[in-house]
Structure formats: structure tokens, C-alpha cells
Amino acid sequence: MKSYLSVLCISYFCVLGCSPTKPKSDFESYQRPQTPDYSLEKYWAALPQKLDSADRAPAGLKDQQMLSQADVFFLYPTSFLTKKGHNQWNADVNDTEINQKTDASAILYQASLFNEVGKIYAPRYRQAHIFAFFSEDTVSAAKALDLAYLDIKNAFEYYLNNYNQGRPIILAGHSQGAAHLIRLMKEYFDNNELRKKLVVSYAVGYPIPLEAYKILKPCKNEFETGCICSWRSFKKGYKAEFQDAEKPVVITNPLIWTTEENIYADKSKNIGSVLDNFSKAPVPNISGAQIYKHILWVDKPKFKGSFLYPFSNFHRGDFNIFYMNVRQNAMQRLNAFWKQ
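-> C-alpha cells emitted (340 positions)
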């Protein structure tokens, strides 16, 4: 089986090597997909009461959702990458191909890492097409992202009113999912009573300005609760133009759970990565990591076929390189939450 990074490599070839994507119409000129009804299970990629990809676990691990006393609200990254997106700004939540891609990638390889600590709720949403992040039509792109966020907000409201039942909440999202999670935290958890139920937010793969919130702050250690963890993974030694121009962002080293720059945590602290066949046990000691100028430097992971991976951006592995560290940390923070 191909690795998770390799399977999804095609999206980076397009982003880095294709000509700029330009939709054939602006946002207002196309028919929006059907609005999801979150009272129906089919509009959830993961729910604790149904069989889904978030229920699976690599060898040696168990799905404990039915025993969990906390919830995980998970927002998956962009899986709408196809050419038909040139005519459509947002994904159709009834599109079988997109849903299968989402379930076989992000729900299986990312959402599953939380199935020991909490009941997983992952709404399907009318995600913006990948070109929304690169299009010159920034007005339409913003509207497409707004539409996606509207679904997430509606899903979260439904979750609060029908599923939560007062349990503590872990938030998690990657890439586009993290971008929407940043907005959700601002609206619901910053200077709000709901923040008292927040165990932690893992908003990974998208920059979060340090000054984005009034009350929510970056986590400073592995036991702090009601705080945010975030990182963007690049090959060790990588330097980008945006690093010098970018304002300070939330940045966490998921091997040692600090925000301090230039402290190298060697690979012995990486307790397990899931990059290859999902059914295999997580592989320890894959990569060390350190924070450098707003990004996370990561030793290039070695797995079958890794020599074919030509990029210094390890975006697709943001969670999976640190699969077991995040899984363990979520439980550490939940235990600390109950002791407060």
C-alpha cells in the first residue's frame, strides 16, 4: 500500500507545478450545492453511533469512543481537488467520490487518532475547492470559504444542541479544516462560557496569528487546557520568503509541547508515526522536530517510497508524523482537565 503522503502527493504537484487555476465563473454565477441537514447521519463523515473510518485503529490500538467521557469535533482538510471544481467553488456534500476520498484519507488517518480520548463528530461540509486558496478572484474565494464555514457553524450548533450533553470538547482540524476552526474558536470559545468546556484545540496546518484572540492562548506545556496547539511541518533546514514577512503565529512542537524556538527534540521522542499501511502498528523514531521562525522543522520521514517525495513541505503529514504523540497528548490534557 502506498504511504499517506505519497497517495496525496498529486495535489502538491498541481499546486506547485500546474498553471494557475482560474474558474470559468465567479462565485455568484454558479449554483450552490445543496445545504446539508445535520439531523441526518449521512451528512456526518464521523459519528460515534455509526460505523465510519474514524472507528478504525492501527495495530495495537483500540477505538474507545463508546467509553469516552469527552467529545472531539473534527474538521477535515481539503479533498475537493478535481477538475470539475473549475466550474464549482464548493463541494457537493452528496458527491460520493469526494466523500470516499475524505473518508479514506483525513477521517481514517487523522480523525482516528482521537478515538481513544473522545467521541468523534466530523461534519461533511461544502468545502471550498483547492483553487480558492490560490485564485486571483479573491472575492469569490472568500465567499466560497464563507459558505464552507456556514456549514461548519450550523453543524456545530446542531452538535451542541443534540449531541454534546455537557461533555468537555476537544477541537481538531487540519489545513482548510483548521482555517475554519480558527473562526469557530473566535466565535464560540473566545470570551465565552463555552471556553470552560474546551480541553484543547489542535488547529494544524494553517497559520494562527498570536493576536487573533482575546482570551485563548497557545498551550505552553503538555498538560495545559483551554488552549491552542498549532504547527506547519517543513523539512529541516527549509527557509521560505514568507517567514520573514509573517507576523508571529501560534507554533507548537508536538514532540515536547512547548513553543520555544530552536530547541531540537530528537526522533527518540517521536513515539509513533502512521504514514504507511494504516493497519500496521505506528512506527516510532521516524522524525525529530524543532521550531524555527513560525514553522516546524521536521527530519524527513523515511518510509517505503519516501525517496519519491520531492517536497520540503510536509503539510500532508502534519498530524501523521506525530500520530501517537498527539493521541497521547489529547489524553494527558483530558486527564488534566478532569483534575481542575
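Helices lie at 4-7, 9-17, 96-109, 138-162, 176-188, 241-245, 323-339.
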